[in-house]
Write the structure tokens for this entry.
Amino acid sequence: MNAPFLTSIIQRYYPETAEKVQTLIESNVLLEKLALSVYHKIEASVQKYADIAGRLNVITRLTKAWRNKEYTDVSYATVFLSVAILLYFVSPIDLIPDFIPLIGGLDDVLLLGFLIKIIDKEIERFLTWEMENAQ
């Protein structure tokens, strides 16, 4: 897909959005406000993604400890779901292909966020266990 084709799609099917985009393009003040909003969102996202990356490291350690029978205070269902979502994350086959600009990684981020949310208590218990068993 090339830019003129996408532009025509947006203008045809999303006329209100196309109007807003045109207004932004024509206004230095609005474009500057948009740039500031993007900057602030990126700043917030960087921390969010750093947190996700840290949690993913914990999940991989938890799974490894469970597999090695060092840590058994986690259900098989939790391990199964964790591995399934991590497998999807690294898989080149996605619902939304990663090469699509801006939204390509959206499905990955949503699934990882979902995973972390549902097993956060398990992660915290594992971290406590790790600290108690540190050598």
